[in-house]
Amino acid sequence: MVEIKNNKDHKIFKEIKKAIELDDLPEEEKENIRQLLKNLKFQLEVIR
């Protein structure tokens, strides 16, 4: 997993992750969202 250097980014991702876990989405949907988050983290790292 990509390390998030910016603390604000880290908090945002933690909130999103928490929301995913609490949500009643099917496991497949959760996995899609997790994958999107990984891609987003990677893109943030590339931008920096």
TrEMBL record:
This is Uncharacterized protein. It comes from marine sediment metagenome. The lineage of its organism: unclassified sequences, metagenomes, ecological metagenomes.
